[in-house]
Amino acid sequence: MRRVLFLALLGLSACAIPRSQAPFEAGPAAAPAEIVPEPPRARERWQPGQVIADAVRVETQTYIVQAGDALSLIAERTGSAVRTIARANRLQPPYKIYPGQRLEIPGGRYHRVRRGDTGIAIALAYKTDWDEIVQANALDAPFLLRIGQRLFLPDAASPQRAETMDAPADTPEPAPSELAAFNVDIDDIITGGEPAIAEEDAPAERASALPEPAPFDGRFTWPVEGRLLSSFGAKAGGLYNDGINIAADKGAPVRAAATGTVIYAGNGVEGWGNLVLLKHDEDWVSAYAHNDAFYVQRGDRVGRGEVIAEVGQTGSVTRPQLHFELRQGRKAVDPRAHLPTG
């Protein structure tokens, strides 16, 4: 997983984005002069909450199935997890077992999910990549966590140096805390940002309770007017940018690039600042980072050109700007290839 530190520092050379390249759909007709429309109000920012890192270590052991046992009961008795035991013993749903059967119980650390826990927060609490937790527990899309569920935690990997981008040769190295913050990326937020929900509210086949977005016509528009600070793609020194960074005045409106549903609006991940993610259909997601005020919250449906936030200077940036990404599936694509050129 590529780690990208979105630093757009003062002094970077920037290309101008002509205003003609950032058209926005016209809004409703202006109100009569005597009527002053009420400005949009900032919405409450979703926070992932603090995860209590109290994982229990389970020793590797063998369990002999007793009459009346179920895999869930065995997991509870041993402190392990249903799917972890199933994978270790090559059991397939509905996980039929029989008395006298010998089951291998994998040893390791297991975290019990509490109300409000998210995959991101759990990963950060244990300094383990969320995608490794997904793989270790064979979690399936849409990666919903259940209250009381146990997650097997793979051993934390050695810290990896996050990548920076577009930093001039005389730019000082980012602080270690800034680098560590980027053990979480857009994919993690999309798949691990959902708060845990009660078991009875989440049958295995059920997807997220988010409303489906309005039909997406495949068109995107520029989310903000401004100067290009950093383009998409490879940079000098083996660095990479998964989106584009656009300089704009603090408080400038940030608009939805297309019709969609808000799947995340918060500042629970260091470095990104205030981040909004919009889901447009089963393939496309757009990301808007370093915002100031939010005008949307998770579950809101928005139209193309609707104001969703204000440009800010939050996260690991030193000037007001918007970091904008387009993702098709799990792949970041160059936004400018899908935005109007004139």
UniProtKB/TrEMBL annotation:
PROSITE patterns: LYSM, PROKAR_LIPOPROTEIN
Keywords, alphabetical: Signal
Signal sequence, renumbered to the chain: 1-22
Region: Disordered, residue numbers: 158-177
Organism superkingdom: Bacteria
Listed Pfam families: LysM (PF01476), Peptidase_M23 (PF01551)
InterPro entries xref list: Cell_wall_metabolism_enzyme, LysM, M23ase_b-sheet_dom
Name used for this protein in its record: M23 family metallopeptidase
PANTHER family in the record: MUREIN HYDROLASE ACTIVATOR ENVC, PEPTIDASE-RELATED
LysM domain mapped to chain residues: 61-105, 109-153
